[in-house]
Amino acid sequence: MLSLLNRYLRFFCLSWWPDYQGRIGGLSLQRLVVMALFWPLFVSVQAINALGLCVDHLLFPGFRRVPVREPLFVVGVPRSGTTFLHRLLALDERFTTTALWELLFAPSISQRYFWTGVAGLDSRLGRPLGRLLMWAERRLLGGLDGVHKTGLLDPEEDYLGLIPVWGCFLMVLVVPVPALWQLTYLDRDGSQADKQRLMTAYRRFVQRHLYFHGTDKVLLSKNPSFTPWMETLAQAFPDARFIGCVRNPSASVPSQINSILIGARLFDGRDTRDYWRQGFMDMLDYYYRHVLAALASLPEHRQALSVMETLATAPADTVLGFYRRFGWQVDQAYRARLAEQDRKAAGYRSGHHYSLDDLGVSAEALNDTFGWVYERFDFPRP
Q1: Is residue 150, in this structure, part of any structural domain at all?
Q2: What CATH number does residue 88 fall under?
Q3: Does the keyword section mention Kinase (predicted)?
């Protein structure tokens, strides 16, 4: 507990004057304002969540005995169809997956019972709070639909559940420090103590989720940020299965860099493109290499590879192929849902637009860093 408090204090101090590896230093007015708003809200939410987690041990101590059986992890390169695949799989009722509201505002069992009780009461009153919440959600999150469409009730990446223990890489936007970048190389560079700390926290999070949603369910987790954790996860969950996702780097790399720059501009008004571009070029090269190596190290019945270009054109056939590989049965209801997604996929057009010139991502840089990916998958080069 003391080490966690020290981490909060250290990151609080570092967040005001980020160094960006010597490229940009000092304090910007925009960061000053954003941090002054962010930290009180962040600490308040984390304190409430921590209280809920403590209450769980008093009211629902049985969660600690919940087994986690054969979880399925959707990992891979960001912007390579992980969200699409996740939502296709989530249509199967055998799975349970985390919603955004649970991750941010109800990581504990006690909070989930409280908020579902409030929602039930609100429903009987005609949903005044529900309508207000949906309006606020669209105002706050609607602008991100072209990049990553999400809502409080939608399935979301459960690494957000590790925010309290600083195990969520997204927090690098708040505190761009090596300690958080190291999460993107955990299998290779992480200490045994850090790996054990994160896996213990994650297992407890999953046990709480299964306790609330049903111990007969199978956890479905989608986290590109878990790609560099695959070996650690496979050791912590020996019966886990993994689907790794890849895509032509010409599409995935600039798309991911543009996505992170949207967040970076929110936290710091200065031009930090060079910092994020170089960091993500190196990181994504490692992701491509590691997802393929980690999958190859697992038995065939525990791993599969998804190529976005195939998934996008034939989602139902692709998913059914994974089920055959894992030895899973498919009921008629799920087949029908997949068939409907096939029809929708035919008319899908991405709303995520960006300029390679603005990002500073050249064809030469993509070829130099990811040339081996183009060759291995016979992807068209930029």
Answers
A1: no
A2: 3.40.50.300
A3: no
Which pTM value belongs to this model? 0.91
Tally the C-alpha atoms within 13 A of residue 275's C-alpha that lie toward its C-beta: 22
Query: Helix 273-296 vs helix 363-377: angle between axes, to the nearest 10 degrees?
Result: 10
Contact 62, 211 (CB under 8 A): yes
- Token pair 């111990």: residue: 215
Cβ burial of 98 (10 Å; 0-12, 13-18, 19+) is buried
Burial of 132 (0-12, 13-18, 19+ CB in 10 A): exposed
- The low-confidence residues of the chain, meaning pLDDT below 70, are 1, 22-23, 25-26, 137, 140-150, 346-358
What CA–CA distance (Å, rounded) separates 115 from 376? 49
Domain membership flag for residue 138: no
**Cα atoms in the 13 Å half-sphere on the side-chain side of 51:** 7
Please choose, from the candidates 236, 282, 235, the residue with its C-alpha nearest in 3D space to the C-alpha of residue 256: 282
The total number of structural domains in the chain stands at 1
276 Cβ neighbours under 8 A, 6+ residues apart: 257, 260, 261, 264
Q: Convert the pLDDT of each residue in 109-153 to its tens digit.
A: 999 999 999 988 878 888 888 788 778 767 766 555 444 466 788
Q: Determine the structural domain holding residue 296 and report its residue range.
A: 2-115+155-377
Residue 305, beta-bridge partner list? 244
Residue 129 inside a domain? The answer is: no
List, in order, residues 6 or more apart from 325 with CB less than 8 Å away.
300, 301, 304
